[in-house]
Design the sequence.
């Protein structure tokens, strides 16, 4: 078989079902191999969108996402997608084309050192020089991608390597068992929690990628400790469940009141105010659980540090817990969270008027989408409205520009990747008009592959016409009372859809105002 067929069959061995791509001469043998292997190829309009869609696929399924692009500018266009995935800790593999080895440094078409370009935004990047070594390099890249804290990896595949013949057969990658806590660290954490009166768990993306939802719920319910979630951990415990405080907009005040905070798979970066005010009082004790050692102690040293897999450590904690349940504190925390939720609701549902108040737009997206939908948020101020209110009822059901990198323009590619990952679920995107402009052409991709999603755009331009031009559904809304019915018509259309909501200028989210005053994070 040639190298393109080998690579495709190797991906199939790892359980890959979808690859997001932008074709080019250098990767044609791989694209042929993917077709022969029965792997769906979704050809996007821009390489950045292809990588972002692969990341969204990973966030929804919990499995690695894969993208392929051509050499040279194909690689440079993919850089932002790799940076987003790597910063978020999402397992994404980029397979890029490259000039044939014999023609390297001759000034031939798209001859460029792609590895040098992507090294700063990946966990691992390399070039394969022999067709017979493809399996070795792919194995190494896959292990680096999913091992420890997940992230982005990239392999350059020269054209002659993809065209070359090999008799090697692809095999499934075997991964080691994830590590747990040492007995001493486990004992220290249990003692600190047993002595605490107001403990709280803050779960982050590492908990999602380790598959820690069941273990998180088991420990929290046994110890009666409230949980708030950030980033990809939203939905590991459904909003509204007994021990769930939901997002930071509802659980943040309880963090300030806590005497012990357990950080599970999240570092103290800008998304949690660096471990300081206004989210942290500074007097609480910290227990930090993270598989990545460089995340532990970032900006603030924990009182107990556990380097281990989130799922394994939480299972150990649940099994060993014999402390007094924190029922009274849990009830107090839930009551406080409910009061905050009511306060946020008061800023959204009742609002009327024309143009539409942005909070009302968010309320209608939530109402019309329903519990089973995948919600996506992207943009500036409209994004802060959305992440304050959007619920998460299951893992991978809320995708947003929620990490410290703060990339805008991810929303449309995320919606495309999410729909490919979950074709039977509605996908609804709330997005600002600036962010929508980054990926609007991917509406054509969605139409071409029959991957409908609804984009609700907070805007002052005629974006609904773009959806109509690509064979989708478009509608313009200027009054609050018309937003909900328009979103429902868009979802029911079964087409890629844009609801263009003309929102009130100058109405700023309270979260935006708060963050605007936190200049120390910049």
Sequence:
């Amino acid at each position: 078989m040639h190298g393109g067929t080998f690579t495709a069959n190797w991906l199939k061995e790892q359980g890959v079902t979808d690859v997001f791509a932008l074709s080019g001469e250098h990767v044609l043998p791989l694209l042929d191999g993917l077709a022969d292997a029965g792997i769906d190829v979704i050809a996007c309009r821009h390489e950045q969108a292809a990588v972002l869609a692969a990341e969204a696929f990973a966030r929804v399924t919990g499995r690695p996402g894969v993208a392929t692009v051509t050499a040279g500018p194909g690689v440079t266009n993919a850089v932002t997608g790799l940076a987003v995935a790597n910063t978020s800790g999402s397992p994404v593999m980029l397979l890029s084309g490259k000039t044939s080895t014999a023609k390297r440094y001759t000034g031939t078409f798209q001859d460029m050192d792609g590895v040098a370009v992507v090294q700063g935004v990946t966990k691992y990047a390399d070039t394969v020089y022999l067709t017979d070594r493809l399996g070795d390099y792919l194995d190494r890249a896959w292990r680096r991608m999913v091992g420890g804290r997940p992230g982005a990896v990239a392999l350059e595949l020269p054209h002659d390597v993809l065209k070359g013949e090999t008799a090697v057969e692809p095999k499934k990658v075997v991964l080691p068992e994830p590590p747990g806590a040492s007995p001493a660290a486990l004992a220290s954490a249990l003692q600190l929690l047993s002595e605490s009166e107001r403990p709280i768990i803050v779960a982050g993306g590492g908990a999602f990628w380790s598959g820690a939802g069941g273990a998180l719920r088991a420990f929290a319910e046994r110890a009666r400790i409230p949980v708030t979630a950030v980033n990809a951990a939203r939905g590991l415990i459904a909003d509204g469940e007994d021990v769930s405080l939901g997002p930071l907009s509802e659980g943040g005040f309880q963090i300030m009141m806590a005497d012990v905070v357990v950080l599970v798979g999240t570092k103290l970066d800008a998304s949690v105010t660096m471990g300081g005010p206004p989210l942290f009082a500074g007097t609480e004790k910290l227990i930090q659980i993270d598989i990545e050692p460089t995340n532990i102690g970032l900006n603030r040293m924990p009182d107990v540090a556990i380097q281990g897999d989130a799922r394994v450590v939480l299972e150990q904690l649940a099994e060993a817990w014999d402390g007094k349940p924190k029922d009274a504190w849990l009830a107090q925390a839930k009551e406080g969270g409910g009061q905050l939720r009511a306060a946020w609701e008061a800023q959204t549902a009742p609002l009327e008027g024309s143009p539409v108040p942005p909070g009302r737009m968010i309320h209608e997206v939530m109402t019309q989408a329903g519990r089973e939908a995948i919600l996506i948020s992207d943009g500036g101020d409209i994004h802060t409205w959305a992440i304050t209110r959007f619920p998460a009822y299951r893992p991978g059901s809320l995708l947003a520009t929620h990490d410290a990198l703060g990339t805008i323009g991810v929303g449309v590619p995320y919606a495309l990747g999410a729909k490919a990952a979950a074709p039977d679920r509605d996908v609804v995107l709330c997005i600002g008009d600036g962010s929508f402009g980054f990926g609007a052409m991917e509406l054509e991709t969605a139409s071409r592959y029959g991957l409908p999603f609804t984009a609700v755009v907070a805007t002052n331009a005629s974006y609904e016409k773009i959806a109509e031009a690509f064979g989708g559904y478009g509608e313009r809304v200027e009054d609050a009372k018309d937003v909900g019915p328009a979103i429902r018509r868009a979802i029911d259309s079964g087409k890629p859809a844009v609801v263009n909501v003309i929102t009130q200028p100058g109405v700023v989210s309270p979260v935006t105002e708060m963050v605007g005053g936190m200049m120390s994070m910049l």
Observations:
- The chain has a mean pLDDT of 93.
- The longest helix spans residues 327-346.
- The domain at 3-163 is CATH 3.40.50.970 (Rossmann fold).
- The chain is about 40% helix and 15% strand.
